[in-house]
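batch_manifest entry 22 of 60
target: NAD-dependent methanol dehydrogenase
source organism: Usitatibacter rugosus
requested by: lab member K.T.
priority: normal
notes from requester: please return C-alpha coordinates only, no post-processing; we will run our own comparison against the previous entry in this batch. if the run fails, retry once and flag.
--- input ---
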Amino acid sequence: MSHRYHNPVAIRFGAGAIGELPEILGKRRAMLVTFPEAEGLGLVAKLRAILGGSLAGVIDRIEPNPDVSYLASMYESFWREHADVEAIVAVGGGSAIDTAKALMVGTTTGRFDDLVALLATGKPFVPARIKSLIAVPTTAGTGSEVTPWATIWDKAAGRKHSLHLPQTWPEAAVVDPDLMLTLPNSVTVQSGLDALSHALESIWNVNANPISDTYAIAAAREVMATLPRLLREPGSRELRSRMALAALKAGMAFSNTKTALAHSISYEMTLRFGLPHGIACSFTLPMVLERAAGTDPGRDAVLAAIFDGDLATAPRRLAAFLEEVGVKTDFSAYGVTEDDSRRMIANALDGVRGKNFIGARA
Ligand SMILES: [Fe+2]
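--- output ---
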Protein backbone atom coordinates (compact mmCIF):
# COMPACT_ATOMS: atom_id res chain seq x y z
CA MET A 1 0.00 0.00 0.00
CA SER A 2 1.16 3.55 -0.65
CA HIS A 3 2.24 5.88 2.15
CA ARG A 4 -0.29 8.56 2.99
CA TYR A 5 0.12 11.88 4.68
CA HIS A 6 -2.62 14.44 5.22
CA ASN A 7 -2.66 17.72 7.10
CA PRO A 8 -5.21 20.39 6.12
CA VAL A 9 -4.03 23.18 8.48
CA ALA A 10 -3.00 26.42 6.76
CA ILE A 11 0.23 27.45 8.51
CA ARG A 12 1.65 30.92 8.95
CA PHE A 13 5.09 30.89 10.56
CA GLY A 14 7.35 33.77 11.51
CA ALA A 15 7.95 36.70 13.84
CA GLY A 16 4.98 39.06 13.67
CA ALA A 17 2.64 36.51 12.06
CA ILE A 18 0.01 37.27 14.70
CA GLY A 19 -0.64 40.54 12.85
CA GLU A 20 -2.13 38.50 9.99
CA LEU A 21 -5.12 37.32 12.07
CA PRO A 22 -7.54 39.87 10.53
CA GLU A 23 -6.66 38.66 7.04
CA ILE A 24 -7.31 35.05 8.10
CA LEU A 25 -10.63 35.89 9.79
CA GLY A 26 -11.97 38.09 7.00
CA LYS A 27 -15.43 39.31 7.94
CA ARG A 28 -15.98 36.66 10.62
CA ARG A 29 -16.38 37.48 14.32
CA ALA A 30 -14.25 35.52 16.74
CA MET A 31 -14.12 34.50 20.36
CA LEU A 32 -10.69 34.66 21.97
CA VAL A 33 -9.87 31.64 24.14
CA THR A 34 -6.73 32.15 26.17
CA PHE A 35 -5.00 31.52 29.52
CA PRO A 36 -5.70 33.65 32.63
CA GLU A 37 -2.25 35.31 32.67
CA ALA A 38 -2.68 36.61 29.09
CA GLU A 39 -4.38 39.76 30.41
CA GLY A 40 -1.51 40.64 32.79
CA LEU A 41 1.07 39.92 30.09
CA GLY A 42 -0.59 42.46 27.80
CA LEU A 43 -1.48 39.76 25.30
CA VAL A 44 -5.24 40.33 25.49
CA ALA A 45 -4.76 44.08 24.87
CA LYS A 46 -2.52 43.28 21.91
CA LEU A 47 -5.15 40.93 20.47
CA ARG A 48 -7.93 43.46 21.07
CA ALA A 49 -5.91 45.97 19.05
CA ILE A 50 -5.26 43.48 16.24
CA LEU A 51 -8.79 42.06 16.05
CA GLY A 52 -10.75 45.28 16.67
CA GLY A 53 -14.48 44.90 16.01
CA SER A 54 -14.07 41.24 15.00
CA LEU A 55 -13.53 40.27 18.63
CA ALA A 56 -16.80 39.05 20.17
CA GLY A 57 -15.45 38.26 23.64
CA VAL A 58 -12.71 36.70 25.72
CA ILE A 59 -12.72 33.39 27.59
CA ASP A 60 -9.65 33.23 29.80
CA ARG A 61 -10.61 30.96 32.70
CA ILE A 62 -8.86 27.92 31.26
CA GLU A 63 -6.68 25.73 33.47
CA PRO A 64 -3.84 23.31 32.72
CA ASN A 65 -5.21 19.93 31.61
CA PRO A 66 -8.78 21.05 30.74
CA ASP A 67 -11.25 19.21 32.97
CA VAL A 68 -14.95 18.43 32.54
CA SER A 69 -15.61 20.03 35.95
CA TYR A 70 -15.17 23.58 34.67
CA LEU A 71 -15.61 23.07 30.93
CA ALA A 72 -19.36 22.43 31.28
CA SER A 73 -20.42 25.95 32.32
CA MET A 74 -17.91 27.56 29.92
CA TYR A 75 -19.18 25.45 27.01
CA GLU A 76 -22.86 26.02 27.72
CA SER A 77 -22.63 29.80 28.11
CA PHE A 78 -20.45 30.02 24.97
CA TRP A 79 -23.03 28.20 22.83
CA ARG A 80 -25.97 30.06 24.45
CA GLU A 81 -24.53 33.57 24.21
CA HIS A 82 -22.36 33.47 21.08
CA ALA A 83 -24.39 31.66 18.45
CA ASP A 84 -23.37 34.33 15.90
CA VAL A 85 -19.64 33.81 16.41
CA GLU A 86 -18.15 31.81 13.56
CA ALA A 87 -14.59 31.33 14.73
CA ILE A 88 -12.51 30.73 17.84
CA VAL A 89 -9.02 32.19 18.09
CA ALA A 90 -7.15 30.08 20.65
CA VAL A 91 -4.02 31.75 22.01
CA GLY A 92 -1.88 29.82 24.48
CA GLY A 93 -0.34 26.44 25.15
CA GLY A 94 -1.89 23.03 24.65
CA SER A 95 -4.55 23.60 27.30
CA ALA A 96 -5.94 26.73 25.61
CA ILE A 97 -6.00 25.09 22.20
CA ASP A 98 -7.48 21.84 23.57
CA THR A 99 -10.17 23.84 25.41
CA ALA A 100 -11.01 25.61 22.15
CA LYS A 101 -11.35 22.23 20.42
CA ALA A 102 -13.89 21.16 23.05
CA LEU A 103 -15.76 24.46 22.66
CA MET A 104 -15.85 24.34 18.85
CA VAL A 105 -17.93 21.15 18.75
CA GLY A 106 -21.59 22.03 19.34
CA THR A 107 -24.16 19.49 20.51
CA THR A 108 -27.79 19.75 19.40
CA THR A 109 -28.89 20.73 22.92
CA GLY A 110 -25.89 22.92 23.72
CA ARG A 111 -25.31 20.73 26.77
CA PHE A 112 -21.75 19.69 27.61
CA ASP A 113 -22.90 16.39 29.14
CA ASP A 114 -24.10 15.37 25.69
CA LEU A 115 -20.62 15.98 24.27
CA VAL A 116 -19.01 13.95 27.07
CA ALA A 117 -21.48 11.11 26.43
CA LEU A 118 -20.50 11.11 22.74
CA LEU A 119 -16.78 11.12 23.65
CA ALA A 120 -17.30 8.28 26.13
CA THR A 121 -18.49 6.00 23.31
CA GLY A 122 -14.99 6.34 21.79
CA LYS A 123 -16.61 6.41 18.34
CA PRO A 124 -16.55 9.22 15.77
CA PHE A 125 -19.69 11.33 15.46
CA VAL A 126 -20.82 14.24 13.32
CA PRO A 127 -21.16 17.43 15.41
CA ALA A 128 -24.54 19.16 15.20
CA ARG A 129 -22.79 22.55 14.95
CA ILE A 130 -19.17 23.61 14.55
CA LYS A 131 -17.07 26.78 14.81
CA SER A 132 -13.78 27.29 12.94
CA LEU A 133 -10.57 27.24 14.96
CA ILE A 134 -7.51 29.42 14.46
CA ALA A 135 -4.76 28.22 16.78
CA VAL A 136 -2.00 30.55 17.95
CA PRO A 137 0.50 28.68 20.14
CA THR A 138 2.43 30.71 22.70
CA THR A 139 4.67 27.78 23.64
CA ALA A 140 6.90 25.66 21.41
CA GLY A 141 5.79 22.11 22.03
CA THR A 142 2.16 21.12 22.06
CA GLY A 143 1.66 20.64 18.32
CA SER A 144 -2.07 20.99 19.02
CA GLU A 145 -2.20 23.77 16.41
CA VAL A 146 -1.63 21.22 13.63
CA THR A 147 -3.57 18.22 14.98
CA PRO A 148 -7.29 17.50 15.32
CA TRP A 149 -7.05 16.03 18.85
CA ALA A 150 -7.74 17.30 22.31
CA THR A 151 -7.43 15.60 25.67
CA ILE A 152 -10.32 16.34 28.03
CA TRP A 153 -9.70 15.23 31.61
CA ASP A 154 -12.16 13.97 34.17
CA LYS A 155 -9.86 14.05 37.17
CA ALA A 156 -12.63 13.27 39.67
CA ALA A 157 -13.33 10.01 37.83
CA GLY A 158 -9.59 9.37 37.29
CA ARG A 159 -9.81 9.21 33.50
CA LYS A 160 -9.52 11.21 30.29
CA HIS A 161 -11.44 11.52 27.04
CA SER A 162 -9.93 11.95 23.60
CA LEU A 163 -11.66 14.32 21.24
CA HIS A 164 -10.74 13.45 17.65
CA LEU A 165 -12.97 14.34 14.72
CA PRO A 166 -12.34 15.37 11.11
CA GLN A 167 -14.06 18.64 12.09
CA THR A 168 -11.59 19.48 14.88
CA TRP A 169 -8.57 20.19 12.67
CA PRO A 170 -7.73 23.88 13.11
CA GLU A 171 -8.45 25.89 9.99
CA ALA A 172 -5.17 27.75 10.49
CA ALA A 173 -2.13 27.77 12.76
CA VAL A 174 -0.37 31.07 13.36
CA VAL A 175 3.07 30.34 14.81
CA ASP A 176 4.73 33.56 15.91
CA PRO A 177 7.98 32.93 17.85
CA ASP A 178 7.95 36.48 19.24
CA LEU A 179 5.00 35.40 21.45
CA MET A 180 7.37 32.95 23.18
CA LEU A 181 10.11 35.44 24.10
CA THR A 182 9.00 35.90 27.71
CA LEU A 183 8.28 32.26 28.57
CA PRO A 184 9.87 31.16 31.85
CA ASN A 185 12.49 28.42 31.52
CA SER A 186 10.24 25.87 33.26
CA VAL A 187 7.64 26.21 30.49
CA THR A 188 10.30 26.30 27.77
CA VAL A 189 11.66 22.96 29.03
CA GLN A 190 8.27 21.30 29.46
CA SER A 191 6.99 22.33 26.05
CA GLY A 192 10.30 21.63 24.28
CA LEU A 193 10.41 18.11 25.71
CA ASP A 194 6.79 17.54 24.71
CA ALA A 195 7.87 18.36 21.14
CA LEU A 196 10.83 15.96 21.37
CA SER A 197 8.46 13.28 22.62
CA HIS A 198 6.05 13.89 19.73
CA ALA A 199 8.92 13.54 17.25
CA LEU A 200 10.31 10.30 18.73
CA GLU A 201 6.87 8.80 19.37
CA SER A 202 5.95 9.32 15.70
CA ILE A 203 8.98 7.20 14.71
CA TRP A 204 8.57 4.16 17.03
CA ASN A 205 5.01 4.04 15.82
CA VAL A 206 3.03 1.54 13.73
CA ASN A 207 1.59 4.51 11.79
CA ALA A 208 4.98 6.02 10.83
CA ASN A 209 5.65 6.80 7.18
CA PRO A 210 8.51 8.43 5.24
CA ILE A 211 6.80 11.82 5.29
CA SER A 212 6.18 11.90 9.05
CA ASP A 213 9.74 10.55 9.51
CA THR A 214 11.22 13.50 7.63
CA TYR A 215 9.53 15.97 9.96
CA ALA A 216 10.36 13.87 13.04
CA ILE A 217 14.11 13.53 12.39
CA ALA A 218 14.48 17.26 11.77
CA ALA A 219 12.37 18.13 14.83
CA ALA A 220 14.20 15.82 17.26
CA ARG A 221 17.65 16.94 16.10
CA GLU A 222 16.68 20.60 16.34
CA VAL A 223 15.13 20.32 19.81
CA MET A 224 18.22 18.55 21.16
CA ALA A 225 20.57 21.09 19.55
CA THR A 226 18.57 24.17 20.53
CA LEU A 227 16.89 23.64 23.92
CA PRO A 228 19.99 23.78 26.21
CA ARG A 229 21.19 26.96 24.45
CA LEU A 230 17.73 28.52 24.63
CA LEU A 231 17.62 27.95 28.39
CA ARG A 232 20.82 29.99 28.69
CA GLU A 233 19.58 32.68 26.27
CA PRO A 234 15.78 32.77 26.73
CA GLY A 235 15.53 36.20 25.09
CA SER A 236 17.11 35.08 21.81
CA ARG A 237 14.68 35.62 18.95
CA GLU A 238 16.74 33.35 16.72
CA LEU A 239 16.65 30.42 19.18
CA ARG A 240 12.94 30.97 19.96
CA SER A 241 12.28 30.83 16.23
CA ARG A 242 14.26 27.59 15.86
CA MET A 243 12.41 25.93 18.76
CA ALA A 244 9.05 27.08 17.40
CA LEU A 245 9.88 25.57 14.02
CA ALA A 246 11.13 22.34 15.60
CA ALA A 247 7.92 22.01 17.64
CA LEU A 248 5.84 22.71 14.54
CA LYS A 249 7.68 19.97 12.63
CA ALA A 250 7.14 17.55 15.53
CA GLY A 251 3.45 18.45 15.40
CA MET A 252 3.36 17.76 11.64
CA ALA A 253 5.02 14.38 12.29
CA PHE A 254 2.65 13.11 14.96
CA SER A 255 -0.43 14.70 13.36
CA ASN A 256 -0.37 11.63 11.12
CA THR A 257 0.83 8.92 13.51
CA LYS A 258 -0.51 9.89 16.96
CA THR A 259 1.72 9.23 19.97
CA ALA A 260 2.86 5.93 21.49
CA LEU A 261 4.20 4.38 24.70
CA ALA A 262 5.78 7.42 26.38
CA HIS A 263 2.54 9.39 26.13
CA SER A 264 0.54 6.37 27.22
CA ILE A 265 2.65 6.18 30.41
CA SER A 266 2.38 9.95 30.89
CA TYR A 267 -1.38 9.97 31.47
CA GLU A 268 -1.13 7.97 34.70
CA MET A 269 1.87 10.04 35.85
CA THR A 270 -0.16 13.23 35.34
CA LEU A 271 -3.34 11.89 36.95
CA ARG A 272 -1.64 10.29 39.97
CA PHE A 273 1.39 12.49 40.54
CA GLY A 274 0.35 15.76 38.91
CA LEU A 275 3.46 15.72 36.72
CA PRO A 276 3.30 18.40 33.97
CA HIS A 277 2.60 16.85 30.57
CA GLY A 278 5.98 17.70 29.00
CA ILE A 279 7.91 16.04 31.83
CA ALA A 280 5.50 13.10 32.15
CA CYS A 281 5.82 12.24 28.44
CA SER A 282 9.58 12.68 28.18
CA PHE A 283 11.31 11.24 31.28
CA THR A 284 10.72 7.70 29.93
CA LEU A 285 12.03 8.43 26.42
CA PRO A 286 15.46 6.76 26.93
CA MET A 287 13.77 3.62 28.31
CA VAL A 288 11.24 3.56 25.45
CA LEU A 289 14.03 4.13 22.90
CA GLU A 290 15.86 1.12 24.31
CA ARG A 291 12.72 -0.98 23.88
CA ALA A 292 12.16 0.30 20.33
CA ALA A 293 15.73 -0.27 19.10
CA GLY A 294 16.24 -3.56 17.28
CA THR A 295 12.54 -4.10 16.53
CA ASP A 296 12.70 -3.17 12.86
CA PRO A 297 15.73 -2.26 10.71
CA GLY A 298 13.82 0.52 8.92
CA ARG A 299 12.79 2.14 12.22
CA ASP A 300 16.34 1.70 13.57
CA ALA A 301 17.73 3.61 10.60
CA VAL A 302 15.33 6.52 11.17
CA LEU A 303 16.10 6.64 14.91
CA ALA A 304 19.85 6.41 14.22
CA ALA A 305 19.60 9.44 11.91
CA ILE A 306 18.78 11.56 14.97
CA PHE A 307 21.86 10.34 16.84
CA ASP A 308 24.52 10.73 14.12
CA GLY A 309 24.07 7.12 13.01
CA ASP A 310 24.89 5.59 16.40
CA LEU A 311 21.84 3.86 17.84
CA ALA A 312 23.81 1.82 20.39
CA THR A 313 24.70 4.89 22.47
CA ALA A 314 21.46 6.77 21.67
CA PRO A 315 19.55 5.92 24.90
CA ARG A 316 22.52 7.12 26.97
CA ARG A 317 22.83 10.31 24.92
CA LEU A 318 19.12 10.97 25.24
CA ALA A 319 19.24 10.44 29.02
CA ALA A 320 22.23 12.81 29.27
CA PHE A 321 20.32 15.43 27.27
CA LEU A 322 17.29 15.14 29.58
CA GLU A 323 19.50 15.39 32.69
CA GLU A 324 21.20 18.45 31.17
CA VAL A 325 17.86 20.26 30.96
CA GLY A 326 16.99 19.19 34.51
CA VAL A 327 14.78 16.14 34.00
CA LYS A 328 15.37 12.90 35.94
CA THR A 329 14.88 9.77 33.85
CA ASP A 330 14.14 7.22 36.61
CA PHE A 331 10.67 6.39 37.86
CA SER A 332 12.07 6.38 41.42
CA ALA A 333 12.83 10.11 41.16
CA TYR A 334 9.05 10.67 40.93
CA GLY A 335 8.19 8.40 43.87
CA VAL A 336 7.25 5.38 41.74
CA THR A 337 8.49 1.99 43.00
CA GLU A 338 10.03 -0.57 40.65
CA ASP A 339 6.97 -2.85 40.87
CA ASP A 340 4.62 0.04 40.30
CA SER A 341 6.60 1.22 37.27
CA ARG A 342 6.47 -2.28 35.74
CA ARG A 343 2.70 -2.40 36.21
CA MET A 344 2.38 1.13 34.82
CA ILE A 345 4.35 0.25 31.67
CA ALA A 346 2.30 -2.95 31.15
CA ASN A 347 -0.95 -0.96 31.49
CA ALA A 348 0.35 1.73 29.16
CA LEU A 349 1.25 -0.85 26.49
CA ASP A 350 -2.39 -1.97 26.54
CA GLY A 351 -3.66 1.62 26.25
CA VAL A 352 -4.85 3.09 22.94
CA ARG A 353 -1.58 5.00 22.41
CA GLY A 354 0.54 2.13 23.77
CA LYS A 355 -0.76 -0.08 20.99
CA ASN A 356 0.90 2.27 18.47
CA PHE A 357 4.32 1.33 19.91
CA ILE A 358 6.45 -0.96 17.73
CA GLY A 359 8.81 -2.19 20.44
CA ALA A 360 9.20 -4.90 23.03
CA ARG A 361 6.12 -5.79 25.09
CA ALA A 362 8.01 -7.14 28.12
FE1 LIG B 1 2.32 15.59 24.14
